[in-house]
Amino acid sequence: MSRAGTSPRLLRRTNLAAVLQVLRDAGVVTVTDLMAATGLVRTTVIAVCDDLLDRGWIQEVEGSSGAQVGRPARRSRFDDRAGFVVGVDVGEARTTAVVADLRGRVLGRETRVFADRAPVRRLATVDAAVDGALADAAVVPAAVLAAAVGIAAPVDRRGRISHGQPFWEAFDHGFERRLQKRHGWPTLLANDANLAAMAERWCGAASGVDDLVVMLAGERIGTGVMEAGRLLHGRSGAAGELGGLALVQGVGSPDGIAALCRAWGAEALRPGAPATALRDLAGPAGTVEARDVFRAAAAGDDVARRILDRLAERLARIIGLLGTLFDPELVVIAGAVAESSAVLLEGIDRQLPRFTATPPRVAVSALGDAVVSVGAVRLALDHVERHALDLELGAAAG
C-alpha cells in the first residue's frame, strides 16, 4: 500500500514547489544552481523545469553565464508576469485594492470611501476599488490567479466571520464571495491584523522574526500573533482580539492612537484648559487628529507632549500584557499612524520593564496604511504557490 507522503503526485508537487521558490527568489539560474539550492538530482530538476516551462511559470534565457567550452548551460528565470494577484483591505470607512505581480510587486492601487453602510453599497464600492486597481495596473481580470480580502473582524480557519460583536458582524457581507462570483477568482478572507503580521514578516520590520506580534493601532487596537512563524487563529479566529483591554488597569478600552488623540485633544481644547498650539491646528469642527498632536509635540507644545507621554505609557501597558501572554521577540506598531509613532518608542522602551518580565523589542512599521493590502497580496501568493500545478496561466498572456 502506497503512503501519501511518497505518492508520485505529492512528490511532484513538492519538487515543483521547491524549484519554483528558488526561481521566484532568484534572478537567472542554471540547472546546477537549482540542484545546489534544492538538493534534487539533475534529471529531476530538468524534468521540473520542463514542466514549469510548459505551464508558463518560467522562461528560458538565451546566452551564456560566462566564457566556457562546449554547450552553454541552460538558464531559466521566473516569469513574474505569468499571472497576477489582488489584495483588498476593507476597513470601516474606506477600502483599498491593489494588484501585484507574482513577486508581490504592487502594480496598481485604488482607494474608495464608503458612502454609506448599506451592504449593497459597500459591495459596489469594493467592486469599484478592484476595477480601479486593475485599470491602474493595466491587468485584465482573466489574468488574476487569486485574491484575498482583509477585514476588521475575526475570521476562522474555514473563512467564517465571528458574530461575537456587532462591529464584527458589520463586515459579514460576503466580500470574498462577491469577487469569486464576479470574476471567478479563488478568493480568501482573513483578519486584517493577521494580514498585517504576514506583511511585516514578509517584507517589513519583522523580516526573519518567527515570534511576533503586529499591532494595528489606528482607531482600535487589534493584533496578529505569530508563534514559531505560524499565525495563531484560535477556535473562532479571535486570537489577538483585544476587547479585553477594557479590563486592564491604566488602559480601559481597545481605542487606538488615532481615537485617543481625538479624545485627549478634545479635552485639551476645553474652556479653561492650558494654552496649546492644538487650538490653531484643530479642524473646522474643533476636532484634533493624531497628525495634529504629533506635529504640535514636534514643535515643542507641552500639552501635545503630555498626550504623547500618555500614549507611550498606555502602549507600554498593552505591549507588556502581550509580552507576558505571548513572549514575542518583537512587537511592531502598524497602521496609518505607525510612522509618526516612532517618537513614542523611547517612552515605551523605558516603561516596558514595569509591566512585564519579558519585554520584547518594539518597532514601528514602514508599510503605513498599505500593511493590510500587502498582507492580502502575500496570502493570495501563498494560495497561488500551493496550487501551481492546478492553475491555468494562458489567460495571463492575453
From TrEMBL:
Q: Which SUPFAM superfamilies match?
A: Actin-like ATPase domain (SSF53067), Winged helix' DNA-binding domain (SSF46785)
By its UniProt entry, which InterPro entries does this protein fall under?
ATPase_NBD, ROK, WH-like_DNA-bd_sf, WH_DNA-bd_sf
| Top-rank taxon | Bacteria
A Pfam family annotated for this UniProt entry: ROK
Q: Which family does it belong to?
A: Belongs to the ROK (NagC/XylR) family.
Q: What is this protein called?
A: Transcriptional regulator
Q: Which organism is it from?
A: Kocuria turfanensis
